[in-house]
């Protein structure tokens, strides 16, 4: 009889997870409270105005940061969410994506800058990023739920992990491709490292950084449906509810809502990029 060799990572990871839950429960509880507070504040700001007023604000902002076509398109996407009866769920989804993207960029941007300047850091991060982008996204929910229980917090944690790689990679690429003559000119003129960063490096790298932000937003939004599986609310919960009840109309309506939000965020970020760099092709 042929012997079978089986390898179960869970046998080694389960004790570690149990130890973390037992000894660092206060830390995870504190993180959950902070994330819930921030997410609740963002949701409160988004839901405070009347829907028509909110659509008007987004129209004006899109017109200012992008262009008229993007502004009209954004208003139409929000109007669809409103008249489809998905207004609250849509803004909950936007709030979740905004918080996740903000934290992802806060982590990925400085790491990308360091990786662009220190080759050892770059070499160490590349295989980790390859694994993060190869692992199926729903796998991230498993450890997040084990450490933070069900709810919006594990969904945001998993979304953050999923959104970091594109932003980090493109930040590294942006700073690696900076023209050396510009940096040498700044150094020769006696500019401080801070002035070089904010007056030369960031403006030059901005188009590529905006592409990274666009990809981070879309990757984060891809987790919305999966986030509904762990009780995160929003449009993902509506899709999950339609699936569990076999209600095609509810699932289709919520799915179209997700498409509308995805198009809205994508056009806004692309419009901002094209206005910053009209010759940039996406």
The number of domains is 1
What best-fitting shape do the alpha-carbon axes yield? globular
Contiguous runs where pLDDT drops below 50 for at least 5 residues: 278-282
Number of helical regions: 13
Give me the CATH superfamily.
MetI-like
* Distance between the amino and carboxyl termini: 58 Å
Describe the overall structure.
- It is found in: Cell membrane.
- Keywords: Cell membrane, Membrane, Transmembrane, Transmembrane helix, Transport.
- It is a multi-pass membrane protein.
- It comes from Pseudomonas ogarae (strain DSM 112162 / CECT 30235 / F113).
- There is one protein chain.
- By secondary structure, this protein is an all-alpha fold.
- The chain has a single domain, classed as MetI-like fold (Orthogonal Bundle), CATH 1.10.3720.10.
- The chain contains 13 helices and no strands.
- It has helices at 10-23, 25-47, 51-65, 68-83, 87-117, 119-134, 141-148, 152-176, 180-188, 193-221, 224-228, 234-245, 248-276.
- Helix 3 runs antiparallel to helix 4 (68-83), helix 5 (87-117) runs antiparallel to helix 6 (119-134) and helix 6 packs across helix 8.
- The model is unreliable at 278-282 (pLDDT under 50).
Features:
282 residues; mainly alpha; MetI-like fold; 82% helix; globular; disordered C terminus
Quick structural overview:
This protein is mainly alpha-helical and 282 residues long.
Layout of helices and strands:
Elements: H1 10-23, H2 25-47, H3 51-65, H4 68-83, H5 87-117, H6 119-134, H7 141-148, H8 152-176, H9 180-188, H10 193-221, H11 224-228, H12 234-245, H13 248-276
């Amino acid at each position: 009889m042929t012997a079978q060799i089986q390898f179960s990572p869970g046998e080694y990871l389960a004790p570690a997870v149990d130890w973390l839950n037992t000894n660092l429960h206060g830390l995870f509880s504190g993180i959950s409270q902070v994330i819930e507070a921030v997410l609740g504040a963002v949701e409160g700001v988004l839901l405070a105005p009347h829907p028509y007023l909110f659509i008007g604000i987004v129209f004006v902002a899109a017109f200012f940061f992008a262009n008229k076509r993007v502004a009209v398109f954004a208003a139409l996407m929000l109007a669809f969410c409103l008249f489809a009866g998905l207004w609250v769920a849509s803004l909950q989804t936007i709030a979740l994506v905004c918080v996740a993207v903000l934290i992802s960029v806060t982590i990925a941007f400085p790491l990308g800058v360091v990786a662009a300047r220190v080759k050892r850091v770059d070499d160490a991060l590349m295989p980790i990023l390859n694994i993060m982008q190869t692992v199926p996204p729903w796998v991230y929910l498993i450890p997040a739920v084990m450490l933070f229980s069900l709810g919006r917090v594990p969904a945001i944690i998993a979304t953050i992990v999923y959104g970091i790689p594109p932003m980090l990679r493109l930040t590294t690429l942006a700073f690696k491709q900076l023209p050396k003559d510009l940096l040498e000119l700044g150094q020769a003129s006696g500019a401080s490292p801070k002035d070089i960063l904010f007056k030369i490096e960031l403006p030059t790298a901005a188009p590529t950084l905006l592409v990274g932000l666009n990809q981070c937003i879309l990757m984060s939004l891809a987790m919305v449906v999966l986030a509904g599986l762990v009780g995160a609310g929003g449009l993902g919960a509506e899709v999950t509810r339609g699936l569990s009840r076999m209600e095609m109309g509810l699932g289709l309506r919520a799915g179209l809502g997700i498409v509308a939000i995805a198009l809205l965020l994508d056009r806004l970020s692309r419009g901002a990029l094209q206005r910053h760099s009209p010759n940039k092709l996406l």
